[in-house]
């Protein structure tokens, strides 16, 4: 309830920041696309120029994190070095170079009365980003927002507070040198948790919130926000190996989907194998031999003694680890029913040589991303050719799947007349 | 708070209806476009066939409304006659004939690794409609939702309860005759107000809510909903007559924008006249002569003694009546500042012969619809060539301005591979 009922101080702070951000956004939207891109290139340069200050601030965060007993994984997410910082600056420069969707005419129509109607892509306005310990989000999210003319209000985790401030200061200096008002990219100046609640409650002031972090953060944001949220809670990705799958392809895809990287939201968490697929022992054997723990239903367990029993909970667990649940299913309908019951509408895949079955699966599976004969690890904005992503969304409105620059825009209607009245 | 905390009974009822609706939606989405259109044509026929039953039910509502002392305007919105009912059936048939956006490939891209990415338009899922006394909404909203494969949960006003039930029964019978499950179009079977609160709270069960009715209803829905809402609260539409406006065109547009119909959301509510526009006395005189009450700032009042003083409140009042606020402004910047301060982001227009100034206005005014040399009364889905509209939205995400079939869809990503792994 603390989040839903922020203190007056936090509310007033966020209101002030949001109003300043919205004012700056009008200026940013008035700059042409080239000027915004140049400003991002300038910000990439100041990020490089401030290497010493940023790494020193980061060292303070890491030292504090070690003293506070953060886990190795958390410290790794927090830690910067010259190479990682160069990567952050490079990413900002890369965003500068992406095509800008703002100004695109989405549709154009001339009515019989001569009115011309255009839908034109414009920035959304002010985007709130609430994130945890990765300081690169400060630069990545700011760059994506600024590229398409949005202002951004950043609220990073307290573990990374010094790193975030140093990165923010460098970016704002670079952007300002190219005419972007400082308030276009703001970092909430307090770690008071009530500020997060105030952001979530700021309907009409903040146009959209993107949470970046673990499931706990995303769940809290989704539960409490009165502002639209772009996010996914789970990436409970299924791969269904159909009877007509090419065995070698199925084995290659299963290994990659599960084990290439286990910690990403596109990693396979449940493998559904058709009872009529002829090569299941080898398929499961590959995964077991590669060190993956398998938890199966009774039919899967019967295939290999190394397979442990799956509990009900396993079918709805995003392991993000070298663990996989496996069920043997009788045909596509059973596979799709399993996905409908247990899935998270993120990414689900079928492996089959039967185009008719593939089309049925692609049509009927209700997920943001549905794949045929590909590894679910491709669920990524970069792999989709979007250049970068602000996040992956499993909601049904506005933008779904990997959300990049276009998802950070909206549109308005222009009506171009020559004196028409409705009469 | 009653709305935000519905009774357990209401919550369970809405959960059951929503689950049934979602189940039916899967069937509806699996029908091809032609089958859904044919089902709507069948529903139009059953609406016509049930004329006697529907008009009899409506007579009961009208009699109850008269006994309850409803105003003449409310009774008029409620009342059906053979001609109005035929219009409702015709509208359902017209929706059947519109192009179906479902299945459209929004974008297609082939990656260097051979993966083909398609974004394909799909239904949203389950749409909630909360409306007041107009029984035609029952048929209109259901037709638009069904056309693109959405299920719909309808909650009409208690004044129209018998009319809504009769219209709903006729539609469901027609739809069912063509294979659409009854639960695809459901009418909440109770007038218990807690059911509205339960709909607003049904995040994850209802995908989007569209309120149709007065400002009180829309404000309550926007304040309490945890489900995304598509709506506009105010239509505080401005027309700015620039110095370089053609005087005859400006006078024609102003009369139409204000007086063609005063009760629609696209009606002009504030006229901004540039101090350098040479024909202001005639422009204002036309409106006064036509019976419009003008409330002006000091400079406007100085032009015609019939102009009353405007209070601060007038600049933010949607009159929906033969009343207009008028301010004299010094140039486009002042006009746009007035709109930014007082507007509702619905529809704003400029009249000018200066293309550069027009382009500036079209770019900088932050409204869902921005017009040049046209009457704001064109802010309407039919006039935009969309065939019909579910509503006009002033939010910034998903869909803006007149929202028709496309706004009732979303998309998913299809990834078509040939065995690709990320490796």
UniProtKB/TrEMBL annotation, chains A, B:
Any Pfam family: Aldedh
Localization annotation: Cytoplasm
Pathway membership, UniProt: Amino-acid biosynthesis; L-proline biosynthesis; L-glutamate 5-semialdehyde from L-glutamate: step 2/2
Alphabetical UniProt keywords: Amino-acid biosynthesis, Cytoplasm, NADP, Oxidoreductase, Proline biosynthesis
Span of domain Aldehyde dehydrogenase: 14-275
Keyword NADP assigned: yes
EC number: 1.2.1.41
Protein name: Gamma-glutamyl phosphate reductase
Lineage: Bacteria, Pseudomonadati, Pseudomonadota, Alphaproteobacteria, Sphingomonadales
